[in-house]
Design a protein that fits this description.
single chain; flat; about 100 residues; mainly alpha
Length: about 100
């Protein structure tokens, strides 16, 4: 039997879907009976009332950090794949100015 056949995505799905179904069924059999309760369906806030105000400050801080890391990682990828030339030095200086502008906001 060819061992590469076992690594085929089709064969893997045909093996793992019934295996996961068996594990889920076994877990349901081992679990206790379900009893509805108001405490189970309420929001848990460590014994405190749930806050009524919006806790998230918005996406702006996240987007600035995400843009910073995207520029940093993609810039380093471009520099790592380039040869050492004056054009790459100019690119590095531009990359540094862009990152400084993002840091200073």
């Amino acid at each position: 039997m060819d061992t590469n056949l076992l690594f085929s995505p089709v064969i893997a799905v045909l093996v793992y879907v019934p295996l996961v179904g068996l594990v889920v069924w076994l877990g349901k059999q081992l679990a206790g009976p379900e009893k509805s309760d108001a405490a189970k369906s309420s929001i848990y806030g460590s014994g405190e009332e749930a806050p009524t105000y919006l806790a998230a400050p918005g996406y702006r801080p996240f987007l600035l950090v995400a843009l910073f890391f995207a520029i940093l990682h993609l810039g380093m990828l471009v520099l790592g794949l380039s040869d050492f030339s004056p054009a790459s030095a100019i690119y590095l200086v531009g990359l540094m100015f862009g990152l400084i502008a993002l840091i200073l906001g």
